[in-house]
């Protein structure tokens, strides 16, 4: 059996990585190995699947804790590992320890409370990148996936003769699972004859070799809602791999990445925009026009004497809130820019200004206060 690669190694992070750092590492690798960027590269496609599998486990606190303690054994045979690789789910249909007691006492109490977990096709995952504007408005994106679908030749039956060539499994009588007594336990396992399908094929289809499914590339239109955040995973029920005749398809999980923007930084429902001001604008006061994420513009009045780090709030001009008509706020972050490459006249004016400002201690209270504390510091040292 091949050695399984450590999930932390796959994502190129340490075991102490924070959730934010983990997300950044995943996003970087997912973009690098995405099938759309590496058409026809099977190695990149396999790497992309490994990256998604590793991130799916490590981003979940409970799954990560189980993985840190038990490694890959925590998720073998359906998950829920225990010490030394012991897996409660190995006893049956993946229901865990509770199902063991159901299996022990179910017949005595008139049958189990409910059937085992329904069989479905495999889930698949893919990745899509959108702009900040698209995340604000919501967008429909076409995604390409390689998945297993029902075979056209046999219509998903797996038999050349269609339904007439498929029989109920003689071992499990169509149940797909068999029971066996092990001491005090009644254990259910997938039927070894039909491998859980409940049916056997006499004359296998040549196109799908009796599986009922074939691999095919599909393009799906995925609706991404307004307000979606970077790292969101969207589940599309029934768009995963086909499970074969009579078995529901699995689900498709779309991992969404939101690209960085040249003007705006998002924090939840709020948006921040950094605006540099000339020294004269900050000193004298001014009115500026700033862009808004929805494509409009807004005017902001800057009072005289504004300092670097000042914030101005524009209510309701921020980001969309998921599944809501509300919006967050927009914050203008001011930085005062020192002029460079001055001409002779500009230098003369600044020298005059500096001479005048030096005599006006009220004009620069922070500057005056700081150097007063410096003077006191050295006097106390002396």
CATH class term of one domain: Mainly Beta
Distance between the termini: 75 Å
Q: For the record, what is the CATH homologous superfamily label of one domain?
A: Urease metallochaperone UreE, N-terminal domain
Tell me the helix content. Answer: 25-40%
Q: How would a crystallographer describe the biggest sheet?
A: 4 strands, mixed
Uncertain stretches: 77-118
Strand segment count: 15
Secondary-structure-derived class: alpha+beta
Q: Could you say which overall geometry the principal axes of the C-alpha atoms support?
A: elongated
Name the strands of the widest sheet in spatial order: 10-11-15-14
The name CATH uses for the topology of one domain is HSP40/DNAj peptide-binding domain
Rounded Rg: 32 Å
Taking all residues together, what is the mean pLDDT? 81
Strand percentage, roughly?
25-35%
What's the architecture of one domain, going by CATH? Sandwich
What is the element string, with H for helices and E for strands?
HHHHHEHEEEEEEEEEEHEEEEHH
Tell me the number of helical segments per DSSP (H or I, 4 or more residues long): 9
Family: Belongs to the DnaJ family.
Protein name: Chaperone protein DnaJ
GO cellular component, one term: cytoplasm
GO biological process, one term: protein refolding
């Amino acid at each position: 059996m091949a050695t399984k690669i450590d999930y932390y190694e796959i994502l190129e992070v340490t075991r102490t990585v924070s959730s934010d750092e983990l997300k950044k590492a995943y996003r970087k690798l997912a973009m690098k190995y995405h099938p759309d960027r590496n058409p026809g590269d099977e190695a990149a496609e396999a790497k992309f699947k490994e990256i998604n599998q590793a991130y799916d486990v490590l981003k979940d606190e409970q799954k990560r804790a189980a993985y840190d303690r038990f490694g890959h054994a925590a998720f073998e045979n359906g998950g829920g590992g225990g010490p030394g690789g012991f897996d409660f789910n190995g006893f049956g249909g993946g229901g865990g320890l509770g199902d063991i007691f159901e299996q022990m006492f179910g017949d005595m109490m008139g049958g189990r409370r409910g059937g085992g977990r329904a069989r479905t096709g495999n889930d698949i995952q893919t990745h899509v990148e959108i702009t900040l504007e698209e995340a604000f408005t919501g967008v429909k994106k076409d995604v390409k996936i390689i998945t297993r679908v029902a075979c056209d030749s046999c219509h998903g039956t797996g038999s050349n003769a269609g339904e007439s060539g498929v029989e109920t499994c003689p071992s499990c009588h169509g149940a797909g699972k068999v029971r066996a007594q092990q001491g005090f336990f009644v254990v259910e396992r997938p039927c070894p004859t039909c491998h859980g399908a409940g049916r056997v094929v006499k004359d296998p289809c040549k196109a799908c070799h009796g599986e009922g499914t074939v691999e095919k590339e599909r393009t799906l239109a995925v609706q991404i809602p307004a307000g979606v955040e970077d790292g969101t995973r969207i589940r599309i029920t029934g768009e995963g791999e086909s499970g074969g005749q009579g078995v529901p398809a699995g689900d498709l999980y779309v991992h969404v990445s939101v690209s960085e923007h040249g003007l705006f930084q998002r924090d939840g429902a709020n948006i921040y925009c950094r605006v540099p001001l000339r020294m004269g604008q900050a000193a004298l006061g001014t009115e500026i026009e700033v862009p808004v994420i929805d494509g409009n513009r807004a005017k902001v009045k800057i009072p005289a004497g504004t300092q670097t780090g000042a914030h101005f709030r524009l209510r309701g001009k921020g980001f969309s809130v998921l599944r809501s008509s509300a919006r967050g706020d927009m914050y203008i972050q001011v930085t005062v820019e020192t002029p460079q490459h001055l001409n002779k006249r500009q230098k003369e004016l600044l020298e005059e200004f500096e001479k005048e400002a030096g005599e006006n201690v009220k004009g620069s209270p922070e500057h005056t206060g700081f150097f007063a504390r410096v003077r006191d510091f050295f006097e106390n040292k002396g």
